Amino acid sequence: MPLYEYLCRDCGMKFELLRGINQADEPAPCTQCGSHRTGRLISLFAAVSDGKIVAGPTGCTTCSSHTCAGCGLHG
After folding, report:
1. What predicted TM-score, i.e. pTM, was given to this entire model?
2. Contact 26, 36 (CB under 8 A)
3. What single string gives the DSSP state of each residue in 41-62?
4. 28 in the Ramachandran plot: left (φ > 0), alpha (ψ -120 to 50) or beta?
5. Element housing 7 (H / E)
6. SS3 for 24?
7. Is 21 helix (H, G, I), strand (E, B) or coil?
8. pLDDT per residue over 2-52, tens digit each?
9. 7 burial level (CB within 10 Å; 0-12, 13-18, 19+)
10. What are the sequence ranges of the domains in the chain?
């Protein structure tokens, strides 16, 4: 089951929920204030493939480079 990130428009709380794909875009109650005025956020990801880190669309979350070639760690 995927883990999704949400943002509450009332209190500003960011929170995560495990939900089925068919529920991803449905309003999720805020874990802090209970509001249903929430929206799903775009999440970054990173994965390991053949011993190399494969980063999401904006680069690795451990450095400021936007491509793995930029930092030289994950050539």
Report:
1. 0.58
2. no
3. PPPP-EEEETTEEEEBTTB-TT
4. beta
5. strand 3-8
6. coil
7. helix
8. 899 999 999 999 999 999 999 998 889 999 999 999 999 987 666 777 777
9. middle
10. 3-40, 45-75
